[in-house]
What we know:
By secondary structure, this protein is mainly alpha-helical. It has four helices and five strands, in the order H-H-H-E-E-H-E-E-E.
Amino acid sequence: MIQILQVFVLxxxxxxxxxxxxxxxxDSPQYNISEQSASRVVGFSFLSFFLMLMRLVPLDLIINNExxxxxxxxxxxxxxxxxxxxxETGDLIKCKVQSMQLPEELGCINHIFCxxxxxxxxxxxxxxxxxxxxxxxxxxxxxxxx
Length: 146
């Protein structure tokens, strides 16, 4: 997504630079652009730059990315553990992926909180300390972290 945005920004910059160059060369016969056709020339130059710069983002990369999202979504929908039984009718309700960004959002997990310390210990969770905005809290003691 960022690469496509970069292509659009580059196209806009090149179009503005090209229009500035052409507007300075008004007397030259090869750049004879009237006021009425100026907007068409800018539009065509933007499209020309877009077609040239679009090779920066390979099309097969975009297609492979989208196909991968579809395949992962179908695997999520076909998962047997994602089936729920309706309490009123007793019907099976299958999972339905309604957003293609779901596989991307599943990969954004940063922290997993667990209440176990390990299988070889007593499996007790002991609070040692926590830090919020630079303040360290350990039990009842609080001190400023430098």
